[in-house]
Amino acid sequence: MIRPTQRTLLPRKAARGVLLLSVLLLGCLDREAAPTRASSFGERLFHEPRFSDSAFNNVSCATCHDTGPQPSASRLASGGTLHGVTARPSYFGGYELSLLGAVNFCYVYFMRGAPFDERDPKGKALYEYLTTLGPAPPRTSAPVPLTLVRNVADVPPGDVRDGALLYARACAVCHGDAHSGRGRIDANTPILPEITSSYPRDFPGIAPRLVVIEKVRHGQFFGVGGNMPFFGLETLSDAELGAILAFLGL
Ligand code: HEC
Ligand code: HEC
Questions:
Q1: Where residue 73 falls among pLDDT bands split at 50, 70, 90?
Q2: Which of 5, 28, 113, 132 is the most exposed place for a label (fewest CB within 10 A)?
Q3: Which ligand 2 atom is the nearest neighbour of the CA of 167?
Q4: Residue nearest ligand 1's atom 11 by CA
Q5: Which residues surround ligand 1 with Cβ inside 6 Å?
Q6: Given this model, what pLDDT does residue 136 score?
Q7: 28 contacts 100 by C-beta, under 8 angstroms
Q8: pLDDT grade, residue 34 (50/70/90)?
Q9: Looking at ligand 2, which residue's alpha carbon is closest to its atom 40?
Q10: What is the distance between the alpha carbons of residues 132 and 33, in angstroms, rounded to a whole number?
Q11: Which of 155, 152, 151, 154 is nearest to 242 (CA)?
């Protein structure tokens, strides 16, 4: 019925990824993390939706990732902070071993770009920038846990006022204000919760709130695509999601 969709995509890429990562690292291992022209270019790319060649993409790496030692308190980004990312031994909860593979996953599925390889000058500049995010040499970083919800299930009801704050931190960056969509990234990003009025017709027999849970947990609906990011349990708990649903009146 409700299947995990992102999870299945990752392991297949891992083997190829290890090779690519080794190639990528060979060129960079003994460099200092001091800013270089390449790293400043990489930093610009990190904040630039046009890094992706898709005319339909309006998000950048910075839309979904913080870069400091701790995630920013003012927002609840779907992606974790990339501080120390180049020193992590694995990515996506161990499903992806290569940094290039992890970056390409985001680039392809969330930014609609064509995957780049280790020879790409933009990819190299981005890598140079990511190395400047710490930690200082000798670089070691622990993997970041990621728990994807496999089979979506209903979540406990939450508090409307908590939900308003959580919506503002987690969803408004792309969807804009609830009901009006004011400030949303583009006109193709649906207005919440109004869009859900078609769910009884589009997803007969499934409670609309379950459809929203599926979307938030998998970034996709029931195996159908989309380019919204998923939120793992470490990022957004079921209690927090319940509060957002309460705020949305679902
Ligand atoms: C639309 C949101 C979104 C965008 C845009 C995005 N990412 Fe991600 N990214 C995620 C999510 C969600 C995850 C999984 C949660 C996590 O581990 O951070 C992730 C994971 C990652 C990881 C694996 C982290 C780990 O340790 O497991 C890397 C590396 C990464 N992203 C780099 C990038 C880079 C570089 C860009 C820009 C080219 C980018 N991402 C764009 C949402 C996004
Ligand atoms: C990085 C941008 C981004 C963030 C953050 C984000 N969304 Fe989305 N969302 C999108 C985009 C783009 C679409 C339309 C494309 C798609 O379906 O994937 C979408 C679609 C949806 C849909 C499906 C609407 C429809 O077409 O029926 C729901 C429901 C939804 N988002 C809920 C949420 C909730 C709740 C949050 C916060 C927990 C959230 N989104 C956070 C970008 C985002």
A1: very high
A2: 28
A3: 37
A4: 79
A5: 59, 61, 63-65, 78-80, 82, 85, 88, 91-92, 99, 102-103, 106-107, 110-111, 126, 144, 146, 229-230, 232
A6: 74
A7: no
A8: low
A9: 171
A10: 5
A11: 155
Nearest to 65 by CA among 99, 31, 103: 103
What is the Cα–Cα distance from 83 to 141, expressed in whole angstroms?
Answer: 9
Q: Give residue 115's Cα distance to chain centre.
A: 16
Residue 218: closest CA among 241, 195, 246 = 241
**How many A from CA of 50 to the centre of ligand 2?**
20
* Nearest of 74, 73, 78 to residue 62 by alpha carbon: 78
| Mean confidence (pLDDT) of the chain | 87
Residue 21 has pLDDT above 70, yes or no: no
Q: What is the average pLDDT across 154-173?
A: 97
Tokens of 48: 């630039």
CA distances for 13 relative to 67, 101, 137, 208, 225, angstroms: 25, 7, 29, 34, 19
CB 49 within 8 A of CB 57: yes
Distant-in-sequence, close-in-space partners of 20: CB < 8 Å, separation ≥ 6: 98, 100, 101, 117, 118
CA 28 from centroid of its chain's CA atoms: 26
pLDDT category of residue 245 using cuts at 50, 70 and 90: very high
CA distance 190 to 221: 14
> What was the pLDDT predicted at 7?
37
